Amino acid sequence: MTEAAQPARGAGAFSAFERMVALRYLRARRADGFVSIIAGFSFLGIMLGVATLIVVTSVMNGFHRELMDKIIGINGHAFLQAVETPFTDWDRVSAKTAKLPGVQLAIPMVEGAAGISTQFGQSGVLVRGVREKDLTRLPGVAGNVKSGALAGFDKAGGVAIGQRLAETLGVGVGDPVSLLIAKGVQTPFGVAPRIKAYKVVAIFSIGMSEFDSVFVYMPLTEAQLFFNKENEATVVEAFVTDPEKMDDFRINVEKSIDRPLIVTDWRQRNKTFFDTLQVEKNILFIILALIVVVAAFNIISGLTMLVKDKTQDIAILRTMGATRGAVLRVFLIIGASIGVVGTLAGFALGLALAKNLDTIRVGVNKLFDANLFPAEFYFLSRLPAIVDPREVTAIVVMTLTLAVLASIYPAWKAASLDPIEALRHE
């Protein structure tokens, strides 16, 4: 046996000899340039597939988190409403609720639909009557006041409105707005509508266009008069530390508060919305994963053509002492190399895009004078992206597994070649 055969015999699995042969086969030459082109497309497919999966899952995670924060940040996690008797003991109920384990805040409110108008525009709104001490602690509003102030809100007798609503009505702090409800004052001729003017004392921006164009806050006592709810509240909203433990909250309410209540939570009010978001995420993942699957098929076709092109070389290696296992591992290394390099490139590209997605959106909007991700359609004022390490790990593992599996059949075909038959036809 010649000395050249010794490395093939004595070397262990995935030895330097096998890696050297695999690297030589991966290099482009005129004779097998087409094979290298297929390998290049496989690399690009894997890179783009991984990057796209990382970006899309990150955006869907960002949507879920942002919408959860915005919706719950303004609406609370649990809602307590009175039954059988008017909700005149709202102060006692809210105080007891605030003392329950895991409760951060309990806010009594008077809620009602109304029309709002100025000389520049009009809109339908949801009016909420709250106390100043509660409004300044409300997660969605506190810290998001863009103009005006909430200090002295109870005594000012004005209203706080969302920024988009202010733009629609063409008003600023200090300007008057008119609120109208159909069921106002009882007269001998029936119920007359009630219309009353209020000054805008604050403008806030929650960051969710639907809420910024709908909510109007006024002092609780004023809301009770406006909606004919003297000394009453319509709901007590509770904010908890762990939104996933709402069943424990319900049990604590039943044990601690001795009056008939209907208790609902964020899961019931928004279940369809968040379930739909999760379904969309899963469908997008499956569709985009097909990019990686197609790239894996390209690895199969590329390696199959490479095996056919290198039939004589494989036969010579076998006659020089290379084992079937060595040949198998050479072609596994080739396929796995394409998968590993493509996955790493896609991983880096996906993370870079996900981390700077909103910056890229703003830049594209300025460059092409476009309006990608309009807030009025997507509810959010920015494009959110949250990278989940577990999902990224799953994407990387899935891609590497597909690349290795795609390499097995061509590698097995190469290892199964009979060197005598191969050389006989040359």
Automatic annotation (TrEMBL):
It comes from Methylocystis hirsuta. Residues 42-249 form the MacB-like periplasmic core domain. This is Lipoprotein-releasing ABC transporter permease subunit. Its main location: membrane. Residues 285-419 form the ABC3 transporter permease C-terminal domain. The keyword Cell membrane applies. One of its GO terms (cellular component) is plasma membrane protein complex. Coiled coil: none annotated. It comes from the Bacteria. Keywords: Cell membrane, Lipoprotein, Membrane, Transmembrane, Transmembrane helix, Transport. One of its GO terms (biological process) is lipoprotein localization to outer membrane. Belongs to the ABC-4 integral membrane protein family. LolC/E subfamily. The keyword Transport applies. The chain crosses the membrane at residues 34-60, 283-307, 328-354, 392-412. It is a multi-pass membrane protein. It holds the Pfam family FtsX. It is found in: Cell membrane. InterPro entries: ABC3_permease_C, Lipoprotein-release_system, LolCE_TM, MacB_PCD.
